[in-house]
Amino acid sequence: MFATGACGLVFEYILSTVSTYILGNSIEQFSITIALMLLMMGVAGYVQKFMSDRYLIEKFIFLETFLALLGGYAPIAIYASFGFVPDHFMVINYFFVMAIGFLIGFEIPLVLRINEKYSETLGTNIAGVVGPDYIGSFAGAIVWTFFLLKTFPLTEISFLVGGTNFFIAAITFMYFMKFGLVKYRVVCVILIVVSAALLAFGYNNNRDWNLNLEQKLYDSKIVFSKTTKYQRLVLTYDAPLNDYRFFINGNLQFSSVDEAIYHEHLVHPAFALVQNPERVLILGGGDGLALREVLKHPQVQNVLLVDLDPDMVKVCSTNPILTRLNNHAFEGAKVIAKASDAVSGVGWTRVFQDTGKVRPSGEPETQRIASVEIMNVDADRFLDQAPGQWDIVIIDFPDPSSVELAKLYSREFYRKLASAAAPGAMVVVQATSPYHARESYLCIRRTLESAGWRTLPYHDNVPSFGDWGWIMAWKNRDEGEIRKRIAATETFGVDTAYLTPDAFRAALSFGKGSLATSETRINTLMEPALLTYYLDESWKAE
């Protein structure tokens, strides 16, 4: 029961995670998946009263082997349904969720009935079954979180968990065989042998199947993929277009052909509006592309990048394709994994670049760019104890497609941000699309203003995404002075692939009615209005 409890919970997590990778919104997918499984467990608890007490051992062996096969092949089948029959994906997905939940719901009643013959009291029977089942569920959650999810692909985890159910069935058969309590021995042997063969076949081939089926989710060839503790990272390549695309949980983060438009807008306008910006804070931006742009500015002395996922930073600092795209921005940076609730740095690592000149000694001459520190910690928690103030704060979070992301666009978050901003600082927030996600964009602006920030919205066309928007924010500065500096800007002082001062000034212009709305809700922790807006936007249905 300890093992079945662990396996049952991990199966719930596997199916919830598969749904999240395909459909997004982890809170919704986990909630619906686990709720449906609990519903079917309840249905099974009711249905079992119609089951006779004959051949209970055989029924338990059949249950565990069938659960092993169904659970083992479920992720592969769900992936395949999305790739080959997307119109029927939800039906197939929820079939596996409900079927596995139904089978799990039979485990405790069956074991209670079997043990009833050997336990002196009902209390002893329940204690020997329910207690280990719940404790096993806890153990399964720990193993899933800290080992399985970080070590194996989902399609392999399912076969490992299914193998555990199979092992329980085999041990049960061998144990009760000794006492002559298994009546249909030949049937059970055939069932165990066939199940072992099918599980072994699936386990040996799951990685190839996984790669082929996941490829169905993307238009271009997958050249790299990795599952971290927090997310699924995928890099694709379109050879004719020479286009690398980076996805997180199936959502496009950037395209190499036009990411410069996005990241140059995110970084350089703020530098033109701050007098001598020496300290820069980047929240998010684990791909290093915003950091690449920041390091172009020679006046920058210190940069702190805060990104929750250490594996995201590791991938983007070691993968040769991504390091080429971010111009080795992480090279030499100090990486700090947060080990406790305390938020503190352990010193800065200097970053140098080749000047193209040669010293008299024959060694290449380098110049110091900046000291860069990478901190792996939740940005919201970081702001609770932010150690210092910054002249420029760049917020490069994914879109608010889930509750955990929407909190990073909340009024509470923006209020905390004030303590991290130095006098005269500028803050830049990536704010989704003012065209495709108009109410989301305007909600972010309202939320910033409700937290005491003054705002300046701007937008531009990023071909891979369409019309995209950013919002610049500040405190204790006059908007007229800000606009005068924008009008007087003749150069950003660094090399850019796209952005010019004139292009930025054009980005400040919106069409008639584009920034008008009758909506008044702001985004807070307890009322994530932004998530509602984002999920209801028209582009989600396109």
Task: Name a few traits of the molecule.
elongated, Rossmann fold, Growth Hormone, Chain: A, 2 domains, four-stranded antiparallel β-sheet, 18 helices, 13 strands, alpha/beta, nine-stranded mixed β-sheet, 542 residues
Explained architecture:
The structure is a single chain. The protein has 542 residues and is an alpha/beta fold. The chain folds into two domains: 1-217, Growth Hormone, Chain: A (Up-down Bundle), CATH 1.20.1250; 261-340 and 349-356 and 363-537, Vaccinia Virus protein VP39 (Rossmann fold), CATH 3.40.50. The chain has 18 helices and 13 strands. The chain has helices at 2-23, 26-47, 56-84, 89-115, 122-151, 154-177, 185-215, 259-272, 289-294, 310-318, 320-325, 379-384, 403-406, 411-417, 438-450, 479-488, 501-507, 529-536; strands spanning 221-227, 232-238, 243-248, 251-255, 279-284, 302-306, 334-337, 349-358, 364-376, 390-396, 421-430, 454-462, 466-474. Strands 5, 6, 7, 8, 9, 10, 11, 12 and 13 form a nine-stranded mixed sheet that branches. Strands 1-2-3-4 form a four-stranded antiparallel sheet. α3 (56-84) runs antiparallel to α6 (154-177) and α6 runs antiparallel to α7 (185-215). It starts with a helix and ends in a 6-residue tail after the last helix.
